[in-house]
Every structure is written in C-alpha cells, then in structure tokens.
Q: What sequence folds into this?
C-alpha cells in the first residue's frame, strides 16, 4: 500500500477534551483541514445526513452532519466508490 502524505501546515489544531493540565499523553485534532459537504441525498428536514470531505488526496473522510465535532471515519479513496455502489444496491 502506498503512503499518503498530507500537508497539515495550515490546519487549526485543538487539544482533546480528555487532556489535562499535567502534561500527560494528549491527542490533538486538526480542525477545519477538510472541506466538508453534505450528501446530495440530504434534505432540509434535518434527517440522517452524511458529510464527506473533499480535497484529501487518497482518502475520503466521512462524518455525521449532526455531530460535526464528533469522530470521522476515513476510507481509502479506492474503496469509496465500491462502498457507495454497495449501499445503493441494498
């Protein structure tokens, strides 16, 4: 599998809410790095919506639009199209 290198130099970082002031092991998350857009199947009634991030080479980040600060699932781009076709078929 090929390595994917992302330039996170312009990303805004925030420290995990599980961090404390003791300098322990902390996780930082890059915010506003990806350009998120709602699924074309979303409607204005606030139903279950999926957001996909564009502009991340080789990867497709996906998240719940109702929880934009929540976790994102990151799928390899090569697996995304077969996944979508499988969902459409079911």
A:
């Amino acid at each position: 599998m090929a390595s994917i290198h992302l330039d996170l130099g312009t990303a805004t970082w925030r420290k995990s809410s599980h961090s404390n002031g003791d300098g322990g092991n902390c996780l930082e998350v890059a915010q506003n790095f990806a350009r998120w857009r709602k699924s074309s199947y979303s409607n204005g009634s606030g139903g279950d919506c999926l957001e996909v991030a564009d502009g991340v080479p080789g990867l497709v980040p996906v998240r719940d639009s109702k929880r934009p600060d929540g976790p994102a699932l990151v799928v390899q781009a090569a697996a995304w199209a077969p996944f979508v076709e499988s969902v459409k078929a079911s």
Notes: The two ends are 29 Å apart (CA to CA).
